[in-house]
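Let's do one together. I've listed all components of the complex below, 1058 residues spread over three lines.
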Amino acid sequence: MRRQQRWSRRRLMRALEGYLFISPWIVGFLAFTAGPILASLVLSFFEWSLIRPPRFAGIDNYVKIFTADPLFWQSLKVTLIYVVVAIPLQLAFALFLAILLNQKVRLIPLFRTIFYLPSQVSAVAIAVIFLWIYHPELGLLNELLRYVGIKGPAWLISERWALPALIGMSLWSVGGAMIILLAGLQDVPQHLYEAASLDGAGEFAKFRFITLPMLSPVLFFNLVLGIIGGFQYFTQAYVMTRGGPLNATLFYALYLYLNAFNFLKMGYAAALAWILFVIMIVVTIWQLRLARHWVYYEYEGARR
Amino acid sequence: MDRSRSFSSARVGQEHMRQPGQWGVIGIGRAFASRRRFELLRHAITYLLLCTLGFAMLLPFLWMVSTALKPDALVFSIPPKWFPRPWVWRNFIDAMTILGHPVHLYARNTVIIAVLGVVGVAISSSLVAFGFARLEFPGRDTLFLLVLSTMMLPRFITIVPQFILFQKMGWLDTFKPLIVPYWFGAPFHIFLLRQFFLAIPAELDDAARVDGASSFRIYLRIILPLSKPALATVAIFAFVYHWNDLLEPLIFLSSQNNWTLALFLASFQGYMMEPRWNLLMAASTILTLPVLILFFFAQRLFIGGITVTGIKG
Amino acid sequence: MNTSKTNSSKLVSRREFLRNVLVTAGAVTASALAGCAPPVTPITQPKAETPTAAPTPKEIVYAFHDPADFRKRAVELFNEKYPDIKVTLQQIPEEFPTKIFTMAAAGTLPDVVRVWEPMVLEFGRAGQVIDLQPMVDAEPEFRPEDFIESLWKFPVIAGKRFGIADGWNGHLCFYNKDLFDQAGVPYPDENWNWDDYVASARKISRPEEKIWGSDGLFIGWLHWSYKLIWQNGGQVYNEDYTECLLDRPEAIEAIQYWADLLHEAVIMPSPAQAEGLGDLFQSGRAAMQRVGTWVMGPLAKAPFKWDMVPEPKRKERRTLLHTAFNVIPTTTKDKETAWKWLNWIVGPVGMYEYVKENATPAARRSVNERRPWVREGVDAHWDYVPQAGEYGILVPAPPNVGEVEKLQNDAIQAVYLGKMTAKEALTEVAPKVTEALRRQA
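Okay, and this is what the predicted structure of the assembly comes out as:
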């Protein structure tokens, strides 16, 4: 009985410690983040042009978005395709690069820097180079396709191929994810591989049964953040296509930006943002649930 | 749920070691010589991949440098010339001087913001991440979801209310809005560190707790030392973020003396009447170099340094 | 034209609203801040609130988009006349509308702002900027008739003047003399028309060698297509911006005329050929380019001989003008001082300092007599530059401009990309634009 009480007091202490540890974030959240976030929620029920007094609009914005805005559906479609196709591709590519850069060969620090480089090059330089790569007649890509006897499409000015072109281009920006995965790879205890080798495990088996599970925490991180970032993908479409041709690359965040600062419909944009927010939170909760099935944590694993 | 755990956890850890020969079928004992040949082939393929992919990855940067070296007349040439003649090294000097901006001041501002931001975000995020990863308290998972959720509203939506907030606080045109919020943890870094902290075995805490160590001591003496690579990763990401970010300095700063380097770069694009692509690219190249040099030399800190290897078991 | 200020009783005032949002929605925030916030000293507002008796130094913040060094000399000259007024230059190098509208939302716009064409009327209609007409009228030396008419009349609604222009750019046709000479084609003269343009271009074009008579169409640049409509005698909107006239025959015919040439891809590259190639004219691969006078700067260094001529006409001589207007936000603390600065930069001396640095024509005819746009050492018909101001039209600024232009842009792109005919696309979009115009008005 007394022992039980002491136990629960210790748990209480531990819980208090927990709150203490996360208190910096709570303070920062209340001071800097919560207000603007709630303000944007409130605004989504207003009509506000930024330069005129706001007018209460009830749920008008939401009703309009769902019933009378074809561009909302178009931008949602474009963004969903991007998230579903580009994010797994990026993750796979980043993992592939991380494994490649985890090899013990010479000059590897140089190669690591080179692979990280594109995420540092100015968006304008990237845009210029890809405008040239994707050029329908003189571009590098269609030149290569011509060698294998394929007549390449018009890429960025083709309604059908502009989105795939942007998705392909996004593979150049996986440097960040690659670094995190590389750091994760380096954390995999070598003795596991050695033990597996002694058991006669092949490369694939080692990858499947050691590397992947040990890497799962950072893979999960990259996946969740990739999805959150993918839903808000903006810069390259803004610089390269401005949403065109004919809205084929009108990403959700781009459409939202246009509404906020170009159409001066801030309330409407806020409503768009909150719809996106709900989608993202649902996807993230789903990801957190799924994570229980495939993400392996050394800490939790030992606990249970 | 238990069944599903067997997907991963059961196959890692110690378990496979207790089943010798399980993988014997896959790895048929090879002769030593064929193994060497295999290693050689593996090296060759690795280099081939590194070089071809590396070249593709290098293209944008090469283009940037090549444009930076072009004389004005060649900037528009079609097809684009990769090797301009003559190389105009002067462009690098012009890029820094032609607008008559106090670039050294911008560099100082950027470094102040980046360094204070990095230190603050690393300390605070690691504390918060420790709480989320290694302590149990009611509402933890919900609060963690809340942390993640703050990343889910596009910045364009919250920036106007934020601007008004900082205006009311009298923080506009100071570095405070660019630094202070990051001292309270940033969701990206909290999440990243949490993932790394969760990968550290629990036995270490338990042993320390038996010895009467407090949570803070465990954080400071066990978790942090083991997480140097993760902390270095956070540091470089935070540094790069502050170095490159345009939106926040643009919105929250106004006096030119408070500008950051990213604003300086943007002012080349603002040169609507006469876009000087070569100078813009020269300036971009110069501003990219510090990050690259930092990355090149700091990488051993966050990749391939200390790991939890050896401590375990 | 009725502005939306009629039922203001229903509206919450902006400041009140924002305070409510921030305080009620973020009550927690406010209380958390109370502890750690330093005393409030807003940067943008002059600190001195002392009685007016003491001659406190006056301060003005001037915000604009282009490089600040263009303005430094003007400030020096200004201070010779007004030594007690400190002018702080605030360049907003990127995302200009984002920052300006954010500041407007917070009620902290600088004292004088140089805004783009649509913004001046947007701000004017929303009551964000003051009426300058009384101040102009009170200046005996101002001489409004010195201004180019279209630039002077543009920022006015119902007798209220919301801004004053300084420099501007107009579209002309620039041509590569070398390519004309090689093909033995005579240089164009100012009385030419579209058919002359196309005929010259046909003689010069060698598409298989990637040499074109004409630059391609700027398919994503809506305003570029406006001038084609104007040259064909058409209009985009009616006089008071309550109706879109893109479905009229003049507009349809104009767009179709050029779309056909674009699809034929003989005198100009198709979008697929031109996309991503950069500037065909600058690189010497297109003999003619119809674009704003800002290209004179880069062209001064071009490795070929070039000249300029007014754009060809169809039914009327028209072209597109771009400018910016200087405005005084209603939130300024000191209207008199703000006006002193504004009056100076649009005055003969201040305006000359700006356009000379920028090498553009000025809004004042008297300033243009000094030919500030002429590039030394280049032999060209420089006099065509200021003339464009007399027959050109400024980018229109209807209410709800962002949204209505998005609709039009999508429609015209569909024509240029060969998805629809001009008749289909424009008859479909015009009523939608009209509806969007009326929604806001």
